[in-house]
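Researcher: Please generate the 3D structure of the following complex. Treat every line as part of one assembly.
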Amino acid sequence: MWLQREITLDPRPRGFHLITREVVGALPELRELRAGLLHLFIRHTSASLTLNENASPDVRRDFESWFDEAVPERAPYWTHTLEGPDDMPAHVKASLLGPSLSLPVSAGRLALGTWQGIYLCEHRDRGGPRSLLATVHGE
Amino acid sequence: MWLQREITLDPRPRGFHLITREVVGALPELRELRAGLLHLFIRHTSASLTLNENASPDVRRDFESWFDEAVPERAPYWTHTLEGPDDMPAHVKASLLGPSLSLPVSAGRLALGTWQGIYLCEHRDRGGPRSLLATVHGE
Amino acid sequence: MWLQREITLDPRPRGFHLITREVVGALPELRELRAGLLHLFIRHTSASLTLNENASPDVRRDFESWFDEAVPERAPYWTHTLEGPDDMPAHVKASLLGPSLSLPVSAGRLALGTWQGIYLCEHRDRGGPRSLLATVHGE
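Model: Done. Output below.
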């Protein structure tokens, strides 16, 4: 089985956002798979996807703090500044975290660990809606 | 062919550990594939997987040094500190390196470069055993 | 359909290089896929692959600046220095960005966002030719 579906995420503020429920809800066909993979792909260069702790909102806030410290705005080495001070850091953060996740599906469910959740990482101040392309594949 | 198998890794100290032999040894079915992919997925949010140099132990030590410098414990911006000073840095390191690897399989073998080996990246002081889910798929 | 093909990239200077056209040109079979995935894998530990902005060369220059600042040469914590000051930073940068990309294929084309392009990230001063293994899979 191959299935591809676009999932449009509503605009969210800059930061890290838990979207596991929204993604799984958009893909009821996962239930039909004995074994397979879900590939999630974000079609942007200033937002990204990662997997991390799904319980404490302070973990997601601390992610934002670390990334803002590690990839600072207004650093002297940025030359691509026309699109605003949050633009170039957003590109670097997006590549550090990556544009896709490949997640195992077993017995009709995402085979995540107990504490793993899917994060949308919004690196722009006003990123607008974000488009994901989900590719489901398995038997 | 779709195959899924859990691989439990014994507890290892904080640091970067070469696990190529252990992973390949747990998946004898790789030999039956003409072409395919091995997806390795770690079901935790404070350990990760990467691919890097398989020969010099000092490379793995230097990885630990860099990550400890780049994602410091006891930084003023951490608010999620209840689970110990190594917890929040472990979450960030885990997302920087990522929870999965997709590796090509060709003619019955992992098609890695000469110097590439699979690293378990243990970011906690006492992470305990770690659970991997391997998904093998090909023809 | 499973297809595997090696793509050899000519030597490029240290930095970030757009290779979308070269990769797609080497894989005319993508046109035959209704839905699928392209897995690109670099068989080296001092170069990597990422996806980012495909229009402005200054974005790629700023990537190089940020990575050189974040993973400095001649830092006091490096012990693996025999292969030159650019070697150990190259290993760390390669793992931060990762050795592979999984990209969706829809209706015969890479389903990238408008601004997304494939970067070869060359982290060595003289990395030489680089070998990619492409695995195409779909229906």
